[in-house]
Amino acid sequence: MSTATLKSSGLEGQSAGKTAVCSVAQGDLIYRGYEIHDLAEHATFEQVAYLLLVGEKPTDSQLAEFKKELVSERALPQQVIDYLQAAGPMLKHGSAVPMDVLRTCVSILGNLDDHSQATTHQANLIKSKRLTAKIPTIIGHMQNIIDGREIVPPNAKLDHAANLLYMITGDKPTPEMARVIDVSLILYAEHDFNASTFASRVISATLSDMHGAVTGAIAALKGPLHGGANEAAMDMLREIKHDMGKGVSVENWMSKAFADKRKLMGFGHRVYKNGDHRAPILHKLGRVIAEQKGAEATEWFDIGEQVQKIMLDEKQIFPNVDFPCGMTYFVMGIPIPQYTPIFVASRITGWAAHIMEQHANNRLIRPIAEYVGPPQRRWND
User: Fold this and answer.
1) What domain range is 33 assigned to?
2) What is the pTM of this model?
3) Residues involved in catalysis
4) Pick from 202, 176, 171: nearest CA to 355
5) Which of 246, 274, 250, 278 is closest to 264 using CA atoms?
6) What integer is the mean pLDDT of 268-287?
7) At what angle do helices 175-188 and 339-360 cross, to 10 degrees?
8) H or E stretch including 121?
9) Dihedral of the CA atoms 298, 304, 307, 312 (nearest 10)?
10) Which of 94, 196, 286, 380 is the most exposed place for a label (fewest CB within 10 A)?
11) Same domain as 261, residue 136
12) Is residue 205 one of the residues assigned to a domain?
């Protein structure tokens, strides 16, 4: 029997390696030396993407060239479009969800990429830019197909985040909405060894390719205990509002949820015990968009704020970034099943940075397990 003893289940609090990409701590969240509030206020997503992928803040000329590269790579190969069309019935009938389809699209892109098998830094950087550019297009085309509309092609005149929202809805976003989606992508871009990033590093540590590692990361992010929390949080708020129409107050709904030991999504965090730095940033921006849209949109934030207060008063648990994300995306007209794919459109930059870091200084990730099965026994006894 193994003599190893795990400190805690789920590897909580245990170091699994070193990284120069991101620092996550109770007091701050830092991308390559830059704090998240600073980035959310002063940077654009393209600048943050360059920072994560290349390692330094871009100059004006570097940013212009990077944006030009992303725009040139937005279009999808016909094979991916054909698959999206074929996946339409699966999405409509529920045998697949958008994260499943996005995962498969990334895998197909790997089969079509001329750098697919290479793990050099140069090849990985090329692939990381291509994936950053193409994932929003996959999401947009997928939603167009779900809605039964003509596919909305990328708009080269729009920045990365604005183009994503445009392709999903078919409408050019206002500057305010474009900025909100841009900031949300910044907030979700990176978070050290979270479940999906760690999955991508485990895969890339075998010297597997970037597309394979990203495909595995998408599969990890799909789960409601990770990326799916923003979808689940909004579904919960819709359920609360529905029950309010039957005379059930928010307080009574929450009391029953506590009594039933129901897991309430969008709250708590493994690291941020005293609050997620990102949540207030997105909540404030989302609330402004809701107020611009009117009372019906603002009501979602009113309900959400009641839920937050009750959770804090009764359980001393703060919301994480997924809670305001759900409300913000909802009032912006983004379909709930696309919330987590949009997470991918952001986190691809962090994943790619980690995959490149792993390939650059690799050691196979192979922990041991603490055996708790029966003692040794003989087959013929």
Assistant:
1) 29-222+347-360
2) 0.92
3) 226, 269, 322
4) 202
5) 250
6) 85
7) 40
8) helix 121-147
9) -110
10) 380
11) no
12) yes
